[in-house]
Write a structure and sequence with these properties.
- The chain is an alpha+beta fold.
- It has helices at residues 4-13, 54-58, 76-89, 98-111, 154-159, 186-198, 242-253, 298-311, 315-318; strands at 34-37, 40-43, 61-63, 66-69, 72-73, 117-125, 139-146, 161-170, 203-208, 213-216, 220-224, 230-233, 258-261, 273-278, 282-289, 292-293.
- The chain has two domains: 11-146, D-amino Acid Aminotransferase, Chain A, domain 1 (2-Layer Sandwich), CATH 3.30.470; 154-311, D-amino Acid Aminotransferase, subunit A, domain 2 (D-amino Acid Aminotransferase, Chain A, domain 2, Alpha-Beta Barrel).
- The strands form two sheets. Strands 8, 9, 10, 11, 12, 13, 14, 15 and 16 form a nine-stranded mixed β-sheet that branches.
- β15 and β16 (292-293) form a beta hairpin.
- The chain is globular, with a radius of gyration of 20 Å.
- Bound molecules: 4'-deoxy-4'-aminopyridoxal-5'-phosphate.
- 4'-deoxy-4'-aminopyridoxal-5'-phosphate binds at residues 65, 181, 189, 215, 218-220, 238-239, 241-244, 277-279.
Length: 320
């Protein structure tokens, strides 16, 4: 059995992971800079929470993942809206208005000198009560920002990342608040991603509770079939991603027909092109899902370019 050190090194040697997305040299609690925490900027290392925090035990937290390009947070209003409504779905109110949260995200970027980077707001239930009931708990909000050039390595992205089918499935809307970025939902994603990485894949694709194609562990999925149309699963039990909606608009602007429908796993064998969309993943071509292979074709390349142009990336960065 490898010891923990070996396991860690194996992960670091997996060339499909970027330095940032694998265990970065500097742990996230040991960095310099500032974190916006309950209304003010605090030194990065002082942005701590007590071990008896409700969210740590009961996953009573929602978060966001945003990207800034050229000093502007892309679709900030949509991200804040999802954070606020996700908290409401979880039964709590974030004690800041959407306008205050937007301003705090911008302030955090500015304080850390982030022009191109990733922004992570998180809202959670605090420590007043420590049981399933958390009626009296204070609601906290923190926002961090850091540079994060590419979710998957640029090489893996250009040739198409390698996915494997997960054994874990996305839950029914009757089981979990599936349209939120509730922390608890990511337990399934980490299980799926770790299994995929241990087997040498970049990521996993998950079916839903009905056995239909759902999404990857942090991104939505699209495929091109022989009809030249773009097919993507109806987001009825997983996140209707902001990038997903943006890419659907871009495809329609290009005159590509987009069909949102139930997709059966057998159909993955018939796809010619496949790609993922997400704030972190942007538009990432998929080269294979287990034994099924896909080309990084014209539709994928075109939409990746359109997306990168829209967010304001330079042509060099945008090159496939
Ligand atoms: N699905 C999951 C599970 C995610 O974590 C994300 C990333 N937020 C997405 C889809 C894509 O959402 P978005 O495009 O809004 O980032």
């Amino acid at each position: 059995m490898p010891n923990n050190g070996t396991k860690r090194n194996n992960l670091l040697n997996n060339d499909s992971l970027t330095k940032e997305s694998s265990m970065a040299a500097t742990a996230f609690d040991q960095r310099d800079g500032f974190i916006w925490y309950d209304g003010k900027l605090v030194a990065w290392r002082d942005a701590t929470a007590h071990v008896l925090t409700h969210a740590l035990h009961y996953a009573s937290a929602v978060f966001e993942g945003e990207r800034a390009y050229g000093g502007e947070i892309f679709k900030l209003a949509e991200h804040t809206e999802r954070l606020v409504s996700g908290a409401q779905t979880m039964g709590f109110e974030i004690p800041y208005s959407a306008a205050e949260i937007d301003a705090a995200c911008n302030e955090t970027c500015k304080a850390n000198g982030i022009v191109d980077g990733y922004i992570r707001p998180v809202a959670w239930r605090g420590s007043e009560m420590m049981g399933v009931s958390a009626q009296a708990n204070t609601i906290h909000l923190a926002i961090a920002a850091w540079p994060w050039p590419s979710y998957f390595s640029p090489e893996a992205r250009n040739k198409g990342i390698r996915l494997t089918m997960s054994d874990w499935q996305r839950p029914s809307p009757k089981t979990a608040p599936v349209s939120t970025k509730a922390a608890g939902l990511y337990m399934i994603c980490t299980l799926s991603k770790h299994t995929a990485e241990a087997a040498g894949f970049d990521d996993a694709i998950m079916l839903d509770w009905r056995g239909q194609v759902a999404e990857a562990t942090g991104a939505n999925v699209f495929m091109v079939l022989g009809d030249g149309k773009l097919h993507t699963p109806t987001p009825d039990c997983f996140l209707n991603g902001i990038t997903r909606r943006t890419v659907i608009d871009l495809a329609r602007k290009r005159g590509i027909e987009v069909i949102e429908r139930a997709i059966q796993p057998e159909e993955l064998a018939k796809a010619t092109e496949m790609f993922l969309t997400g704030t972190a993943a942007e538009v990432t071509p998929v080269g294979s899902i287990d034994d099924y292979n896909y080309t990084v074709g014209d539709i994928t390349k075109g939409l990746r370019e359109d997306y990168e142009r829209l967010v304001g990336k330079t042509p060099v960065e945008a090159a496939v």
